Amino acid sequence: MIKVGIVGGTGYTGVELLRLLARHPEVKLTAVTSRKEEGMPVAEMYPSLRGWVDIAFSDPAKADLKQCDVVFFATPNGIAMSQAQALLDAGVKVIDLAADYRIKDVSTWEHWYGMQHASPGLIAEAVYGLPEINREQIRQARLIANPGCYPTAVQLGFLPLIEAGIIDTSHLIADCKSGVSGAGRKAEVHALFAEAGDNFKAYGVAGHRHLPEIRQGLARVAGHEVGLTFVPHLTPLIRGIHATLYARLNKPADIQALYEQRYANEQFVDVLPAGSHPETRSVRGANVCRIAVHQPQGGDTVVILSVIDNLVKGAAGQALQNMNILFGLDERAGLDVVPLLP
């Protein structure tokens, strides 16, 4: 059994990770930390886990995380970077669900996240955990930077077009919508029901933290810098991301066949039949990205529709998928979940 620890188990990403790990056949949950909730049974905070998770939150300073095989950081940005090195030195694998190791350029990271990086020496070693691109590197990793939710939906959507070299990568557009759980489990005015309910708005148009992560990922595939306009929106949903992506073709191609072939062997990317319009509710609770491709009026503009559950394929599910790869397990272990409907 794989001994698993979770640092920061009280947020939405943490409870989603617990939900998935609780039914994983090869996992023994060893520690779930929270300074504030030390001693409280996890199932007392999250009754949905009654009968599935029977341990209590522990103080991270007292939890023996070095006895784990892998530790997940489901924490705010800036926490993993101060604790990862000690765990790696003890032979523990680390999967960070925050952004501490996603961006390779330290100065870029510090600019967007507004703090000094505590362990810049680990950034080069960290493997970006998007399995559909980096599966072989993930197998050999000690430290995995789990991708962000928007970056997952956008990169999976654009990936086949960029790999094929058939679009103008200087003018890409990502028009994205997210549910409020993406903001985390904290009290903020914009996420109050009376503020977010029955409302729809763009935010971060001048610049969002996920922009450099998306650009970095797409540039690696393209082999050069890309031009990307990324506009996120907040919707009155709890879960879900819908990314509408636009690109201009520079040569004719069978786009539907391209996507079907690229993702034919990917268990967690579902290319829908031509003419489809994926819905966020079709992926609720599941570790899957559903994609549909369109070429309106047969013109040279390609429209890609990409939907994920921001807490699963956009966070905890992808982290578990990375753990399965890391330990040589079936990638579906713990993730063979049917989406919830309605």
UniProtKB/TrEMBL annotation:
This is N-acetyl-gamma-glutamyl-phosphate reductase. Its EC number is 1.2.1.38. GO terms for biological process: L-arginine biosynthetic process. InterPro entries: AGPR, AGPR_AS, AGPR_dimerisation_dom, AGPR_type-1, NAD(P)-bd_dom_sf, Semialdehyde_DH_NAD-bd. One of its GO terms (molecular function) is NAD binding. The active site is at residue 149. Catalyzes the NADPH-dependent reduction of N-acetyl-5-glutamyl phosphate to yield N-acetyl-L-glutamate 5-semialdehyde. Pfam families: Semialdhyde_dh, Semialdhyde_dhC_1. Belongs to the NAGSA dehydrogenase family. Type 1 subfamily. One of its GO terms (cellular component) is cytoplasm. The lineage of its organism: Bacteria, Pseudomonadati, Pseudomonadota, Betaproteobacteria, Chitinivorax. It is found in: Cytoplasm. Pathway: Amino-acid biosynthesis; L-arginine biosynthesis; N(2)-acetyl-L-ornithine from L-glutamate: step 3/4. Its main location: cytoplasm. PROSITE patterns: ARGC. Keywords: Amino-acid biosynthesis, Arginine biosynthesis, Cytoplasm, NADP, Oxidoreductase. The gene is argC. It comes from Chitinivorax tropicus.
